Amino acid sequence: MSCRTWRWTRKSLLGCIGLTLLVAPLCASAMYKCQTRDGAVSYTREAIASARCTRQNDTAVAGADAKARALPRRAGDDKSGAVRVRVYTFIHRGVRQYVSRRPVGISARVDVLELYYIKGCYLCMAPKDFKVASLRLDTQSYRREIEAASGHYGVDRALVRAVIHAESAFRPNAISRAGAQGLMQLMPATAERFAVDDPFDARQNIRGGVRYLAWLLKRFNGNQVLALAGYNAGEASVVEYNGVPPYAETQSYVTRVQSLTERYRNHR
User: Hey, what CATH class is 132-267 in?
Assistant: First the structure.
């Protein structure tokens, strides 16, 4: 698969896949989720007579009529609530298909996507009594990419690393229920706005995320609190409330990321 095709595949997955693991549907035509007796799940525009099918409201995902052999959909999970999911993709009759089990009996090339499904940002999912001081810092992952983007856009490296830690826990293939993508959990519109072609490419994602942080810091006159609030809730919400929005998640996010930033800054 060429690099260009690979990027299209991942964008198509984000734009159209409605697998159970991606709770929030992102497209607008009705589809069916069909499960065969062996437990294989596929998505199709028409119900499969031999399978148990349920209509998926406002979900557009290409299904597969190829026979599939049993293979666990979830490749693993961890205590943070993230679930590592393996998705199989191939072209069938000119249409890219996504299924949760490796298809057999087809001649098309099958590619595997390893994604991490998370309900929300990593620190957003932590309990109320969670202590940022208990987090193990990661000062090495994506060091070159972080330094390059931070230097180019003039954003504190400690802040960037804290945001990545808070958003995805350094998982480049993370995707949230809301559709946020990659290391810095960029929403599709934000990724497009800041020229990120492949949100799962670490360099592009970090560069786009840091560029967004730089924009927010400039927009709010260097106020890191408001910039973080904007990163979590959107700059429009910060403007509307003339400060940190009264959302529990956003208020907790700002406090935790600030604390985490200080930890990374003091670790140097």
Answer: mainly alpha
